[in-house]
């Protein structure tokens, strides 16, 4: 029998030691290390249910753990911890109106600083018997949500509240570009007048083209997959409690963005601030 196997190995050009190979049994220390890694990954996934294996790997690195992304993928796959994305898109733009529209001035534009371009859009959130509408304004450079508002009505008052919050929070310089779709909520006189009062340059997407504002669409995808789809909102009050928490405490403060070098928007803006004011940063650290 042994001679037959050896001859078979020779016939198919396998080295003879292949016959004698036995897989190594993992030690108790290795098994414990694997279990500890799984527990750390589970902790991260519980807080950020829609993190993929690459973001989980980066989060582990930030905790001081040196681990390869392939290993993280294997552990997540074996323990059913990989996220399953859900794709949904619903048109909320009403472009049939009598107000003037503005050309798209951010096509092929690469932002170089914060408060250079603001991106605005609206999405819906389903509750038990109706819909709640969320208007947001994102900074194009840092991906930070700088303004938002919630309402049971999708009207200009909703977008105005989000804009006023952003203006109070940021005080942008003259010439900051405000980009949105051609919806009536952004083209209305009240909204455009407020933009002009603060010396914004106004930009709008091409009609019926959500890809012209893809960064906000990406934010909505994150919001829905990592927050909205995980909760069963019943009332407007439920939404008003959870959404601000997710935006301010999770998305802006903690969530790692691959486009920002796996920093959160707040960390990215803090890094920019320290680069621009190294002396002030040093004084704060020393004090």
Structure description:
With 287 residues, the protein is of the alpha/beta class. 46% of the residues lie in helices and 12% in strands. It has helices at 2-11, 17-20, 28-47, 53-62, 69-78, 156-170, 184-187, 189-197, 214-226, 236-251, 265-276, 278-286; strands at 117-126, 131-139, 145-151, 177-180, 201-204. It has a 5-stranded mixed sheet, sandwiched between helices. Strand 2 and strand 3 (145-151) form a beta hairpin. Mean pLDDT is 83; it is low at 87-91.
Keywords:
5-stranded mixed beta sheet, about 290 residues, alpha/beta, globular, 5 strands
Distance between the termini: 79 Å
C-alpha Rg (nearest Å): 26 Å
**What share of residues is helical?**
40-55%
Indicate the mean pLDDT: 83
Strand percentage: 5-15%
Largest sheet: 5 strands, mixed
Beta-strand segment tally: 5
Task: Tell me, briefly, the overall form.
Answer: globular
Stretches with pLDDT under 50, minimum 5 residues: 87-91
**Major beta sheet, strand line-up:** 3-2-1-4-5
Order of helices and strands: HHHHHEEEHEHHEHHHH
Question: Helix segment count?
Answer: 12
Which structural class fits the helix and strand makeup? alpha/beta
